[in-house]
Amino acid sequence: MSHTIREIAQLAGVSKSTVSRVISGKGYIHPETRDAVLKVIEKLQYKPNAVARAMVSQRTHNIGVLIYRREYPIASHPFYGKIVDAILATAARMNYSVFVTTDHEMSLRSADFMLEKRVDGLILISRLQQNVIDYIHNFGIPYVMVNGSTDVDNVVHVVNRDQDGGMMAAEYLTGLGHRRIFVLAGPQTHRSHYLRLHGFRDYLNGNGSPLDPSSLAYPQASTFEQGYEMMRQHWPDFKSGGYTALFATNDMIALGAMKFLIEQSVRIPDQVAVIGFDGIDVASIYTPSLTTIKVDTEAMGRTACTLLDKLIDQQPVNELDIELVPELIIRQST
Amino acid sequence: MSHTIREIAQLAGVSKSTVSRVISGKGYIHPETRDAVLKVIEKLQYKPNAVARAMVSQRTHNIGVLIYRREYPIASHPFYGKIVDAILATAARMNYSVFVTTDHEMSLRSADFMLEKRVDGLILISRLQQNVIDYIHNFGIPYVMVNGSTDVDNVVHVVNRDQDGGMMAAEYLTGLGHRRIFVLAGPQTHRSHYLRLHGFRDYLNGNGSPLDPSSLAYPQASTFEQGYEMMRQHWPDFKSGGYTALFATNDMIALGAMKFLIEQSVRIPDQVAVIGFDGIDVASIYTPSLTTIKVDTEAMGRTACTLLDKLIDQQPVNELDIELVPELIIRQST
DNA sequence: CTGAAAGCGCTTACAG
DNA sequence: CTGAAAGCGCTTACAG
């Protein structure tokens, strides 16, 4: 079982204060006293109770990750899961433990959970409801938003340069000689899908070959199933439209569409080149592997952690909007 | 900012004890007093400090999930991530918060982390080092093992019936008429890979068509890359061997091998049928989608949580070895 | 260099 | 039905 500082003190023949001092390393202490105490600690495998420590220091060394997800998956999400992984790794390095929670009910319950637990800070991922954000904001607890859509002033946002990414995709396809490009754009209420489409469109406009509305379809969700379904619905138009390339505003949609194309015996990339966005793992192992604009999820998680730590420490944070640069990854599909 | 029970008491004109009682709902209390207190609580958006509560109740309502992973990913792992998701969902329902940690250094550091945090219990996933397990065991904290390889007595284990799953795969392929089956078996030091192979082999033996050693290859890791690579190495033998089916002891290996086969223009399932094991998401969206023996990861996570809760509550747990039944999912690859 | 005391924010008997 | 007191396991001034 677990021991207390009191037992250690008794066994070492000193006071609790002394034990506390040798553990914290603060204040002077006689070497012999220290050794005696250390010996007892070692023997009893004593570990200071973090709860008691948090109580007095008003610091839990816990951070909470709150992800908005209407449904499964949460942690294992191909995109957000990577951010969580990066947070986990960085947090561990900084000696924080992390609570992972989801807010699927769009309620305040999950937020309450964290707030009651007295985490030192929060990382909010994805498009949480405004009321949840306001709620957390009012609590005055430090937090950082990752890939969020909402504009709250004076808050640290970590996002991807989605518009630039859209332009990169357009530039790449255009450079490959493609002139007839079909686009599958996910829900435009999502900041990412919106910006990616706009970047793509802007580039084409600037290039003198604007995107025709008939070359654009909107899957209702950014899922594999919707990508497949949308491609199926637009297949007749696609075939007769002379398209040689497909851009989807995320990998899952691209993959779904690609599956449909393969099933129609379309040769990729010979007949149709396909490019996605996100850079999830599946994209790299698919057959053909998917060319994509990769978001630096590792940096997102890492940066979010680092900044949150600064906020917790009340250190100044000079930049509030951190924008990460995506990268074009060329694979078999183009 | 956050308030204390003291402030609430003062504003409501009662004692701290009374406030505590209306919050906990324990003991009698005059309706008017209750209303007055509740009003103040509501107005101040007061939330009891969970740390202080944990301190006195000796219950944190936190559980820790410790996953063994030599490297990335941790939470986003296609298989373990699903278990984590199920744990997250179940834990939330039971009012537990969950810490997610990994043990990649095979050290005791991650365990210490949890132990100091005073979680009420631990869920250990995958093949943690024996010393880590012993260490945790000695601490006397309740824990449950999921998909672990180690045999510790008197501990709750939640596992998949891997041997049965292997038999199911063999039975299915045999039933389809396949007689020449090639097998890619992941590291045999892993309990799962070992049992899956044995179940498969046992069935074939019982069926009078034992597996020839030349029909068996061992990828060094249970990864996509290794599956691809092993298939590539054995391709000459495979081609000349008249094989009509391939069984891999997990989906990632199967997928990697399948990619290689597709690249050789092998038609799946017409020329070669492929079956994996695990039931990860990628398997269902691949082209062709992969037939597999699906492990009930949802039940694993859920069961682990439920049992851990019982252990924490000191309730009797009648069964120590929980074995989940896998399911054959037939898809395009067979 | 060391110890006694107060306090972090709660809950839990114990009186009344 | 309600309040005062003790205590959960630590840390932090304050004396000495």
UniProtKB/TrEMBL annotation, chains A, B:
It holds the Pfam family Peripla_BP_3. It comes from the Bacteria. The keyword DNA-binding applies. SMART domains: HTH_LACI. Residues 4-57 form the HTH lacI-type domain. One of its GO terms (molecular function) is DNA-binding transcription factor activity. Keywords: DNA-binding, Transcription, Transcription regulation. This is LacI family transcriptional regulator. It comes from Paenibacillus rhizosphaerae. The lineage of its organism: Bacteria, Bacillati, Bacillota, Bacilli, Bacillales.
